[in-house]
């Protein structure tokens, strides 16, 4: 076997079906492209069909395949219907990405209850439901699988100005590790992809000039991440290359977490 064939055997996702919840967003959309490029059939899940069409066009132009399913991440019925739709159309699910998320920069003493509930419902309850419904399927199927939950650097290190977001992501990290332990013997792996600072829809409102200067001063690579730079870590967690990796926080942040003084 040549080195190229060996690498292909590790990262190849041919015949796999990947459900990407939040796949109409910038970061998860790039992850979905990467999964499709490795051979998986990709299901983009979100609320914006126009964004999905644009991403699916890129995927098909590159020789990949996928389709869109509209669903609300925080609705149990919607996620149950999503699983049923994918099983009917694709026959199975092998990889699940739970990546729907929202953010806010409201000062802590001014955070209204409805904003807190909205962020928790999408960021935490969405992951809870995605893991519960798809995890039950994967565990009962008995053939293993990979769940990738989108965490955050604010789930590892407390960051200023994003109080509810940080709390929701810290809970996602904790839940993911507990599920990794729970399902390890079933070969259902649960890992956390931890992006550093990647400009995206949910955080543009908090990227003020002073905050950007602070981030750059704390990032050894002195730049923001680009969405396609999450693909390598995604493929590691989704493929046989990472078959002994579970409960891990895979950090992709240009060295942000390693910087102290």
Automatic annotation (TrEMBL):
GO molecular-function term, one example from the UniProt record: oxidoreductase activity, acting on the CH-OH group of donors, NAD or NADP as acceptor
One Pfam family linked to the record: adh_short_C2
Entry keywords, A to Z: Oxidoreductase
Domain Ketoreductase: 16-156
Domain of life: Bacteria
Signal peptide: none
InterPro entries on file: KR_dom, NAD(P)-bd_dom_sf, Sc_DH/Rdtase_CS, SDR_fam
Family of this protein: Belongs to the short-chain dehydrogenases/reductases (SDR) family.
PANTHER family per the UniProt record, alphabetical: 3-OXOACYL-[ACYL-CARRIER-PROTEIN] REDUCTASE FABG, SHORT-CHAIN DEHYDROGENASES/REDUCTASES FAMILY MEMBER
The protein, known as: Gluconate 5-dehydrogenase
Source species of the chain: Ereboglobus luteus
């Amino acid at each position: 076997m040549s080195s190229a064939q060996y690498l292909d055997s590790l990262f190849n996702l041919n015949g796999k079906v990947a459900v990407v919840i939040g796949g109409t967003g910038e970061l998860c959309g790039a992850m979905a492209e990467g999964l499709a490029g490795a051979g998986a059939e990709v299901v983009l899940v979100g609320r914006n069909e126009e964004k999905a069409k644009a991403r699916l066009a890129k995927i098909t132009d590159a020789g990949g395949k996928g389709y869109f399913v509209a669903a609300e991440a925080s609705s149990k019925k919607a996620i149950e219907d999503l699983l049923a739709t994918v099983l009917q159309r694709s026959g199975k699910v092998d990889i699940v990405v739970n990546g729907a998320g929202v953010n806010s920069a409201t000062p802590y003493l001014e955070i209204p209850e409805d904003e807190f509930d909205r962020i928790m419902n999408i960021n935490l309850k969405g992951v809870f439901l995605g893991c519960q419904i798809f995890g039950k399927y994967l565990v009962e199927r008995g053939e293993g699988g990979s769940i990738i939950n989108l965490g955050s650097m604010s789930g590892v290190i407390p960051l200023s100005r994003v109080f509810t977001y940080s709390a929701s992501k810290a809970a996602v990290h904790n839940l993911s590790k507990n599920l990794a332990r729970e399902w390890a013997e079933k070969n259902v792996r649960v890992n956390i992809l931890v992006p550093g600072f990647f400009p995206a829809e949910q955080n543009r409102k908090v990227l003020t000039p002073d905050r950007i200067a602070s981030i750059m001063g704390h990032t050894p690579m002195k730049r923001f991440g680009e969405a396609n730079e999450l693909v390598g870590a995604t493929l590691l967690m989704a493929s046989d290359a990472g078959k002994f990796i579970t409960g891990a926080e895979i950090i992709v942040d240009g060295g942000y977490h390693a910087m102290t003084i």
